[in-house]
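dumping these here so i dont lose them again. two proteins, back to back, each one seq then structure tokens. dont judge the mess
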Amino acid sequence: MELLHQKLTDAIIKTFYEVYNELGYGFLEKVYQNSMYLELKNKGYQVEAQKMIKVYYKGAEVGEYYADLIVENLIILELKAADSIVKDFENQILNYLRSTDCEVGLLLNFGKRPEFKRKIFENNRKK
């Protein structure tokens, strides 16, 4: 069974490991974000950094957040530089997916050891 946007997510995860292997552990998230942005752009992907996304409650705008990276208008990347992935990070990316037309999110942690989580929130379940 093919996962949603599998080829693209595979390419992003491969890039994540390339960046991690080059930089290692211990930098601020911004360094990893800039590196992922450059590497994905160099591979020919459309990438947006710090894209503002509005959050609505019952039709009224109640806030906004900035996605670390959005690739091909399909996949939200949330980058962390923490000891490990915690439930709060997973909930954060699910909320981001809920607020957009993106259905796939990748949580990429540049921690002591690299780790990622792939999250899905299908558009037909939103609203």
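---- next one ----
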Amino acid sequence: MRTGKANAKAAPAARAPSRPRVWLDQHLHSLAFSLGRAARKPWATLLTVAVMGLALALPLGLSIVMDNLHHFTGSVQQSREIGVFLKMDVDARAAAELARSLGARADVAAVEVRTPEQALDEFRDGSGLGEAIDALGQNPLPTLLVVAPRGDDDAGLARALAALPQADLVQHDAVWRRRLDAWLGFGQRAVQVLSVLLGLGALLVVGNTVRLDIQSRREEIGVLQLLGASDGFIRRPFLYLGVWYGLGAGLLALGLIAAAGLALREPLAALSASYGSQFALKGLDALHSGMVLVGTILLGWLGAWAVTGHFLRQTRPTET
């Protein structure tokens, strides 16, 4: 008897798990349960993820295209250069002095002098009219200054160059640049509107899928409510189901964007090379890809949260 009492005293008393441990176990169980429930319906899950992924990939791809267009227009320096054709009586020494004085301006990044001989050689090589040009006997081309602006006030610099006494003609595509900037601004706004609309569409897809899951488990939810289960306990598996849908849709959207980038890389490189540019298509880095995944997860969670809150209020038993 003493030995039994001693063993009873020596046995450690069973302690109830702490509240954080219970909370963690419940969330892990809900996470695994929701994943298993999605895996038991593979076709429905794949259809939901595919619809969400396509709806999210379209505005994401358009946004990347607009960012690359901004990068392309900023990287092509020739679109900003201002050509100053000097008068015929300005010799090479005066043109060089003028180039040095213009290069000292705060709104000028660089100045390149192209002599009439250089311009004639470029025209001969590009036009294929070498014999006709040689028949002229003299060079009709003036000295050209190629001015690269610094800053955004290209139009102001062009007006200042046109006022120079040595300048005969100033060539600057300011109107073209303003129109291009306007089109790019319109494209960005259109991408924003499309992103909101398709994001709402993805939200509705998640909500409708979770609603069907709730309808199939209506009796089970009613029993849990009668047993005193809280709305948070009942809602938790559906929220994690929305999280899985959002994660799958985000991964699919990133995969589609990566595949589209690989398909467009070579023809874009050939096109940029024809303009003398080394432009390369820029995709999403690791940070922005992670932000996309976080956004899609939040989108799936929000859709599930909105629908479960509505249907839990409808299925809550009425007190008599």
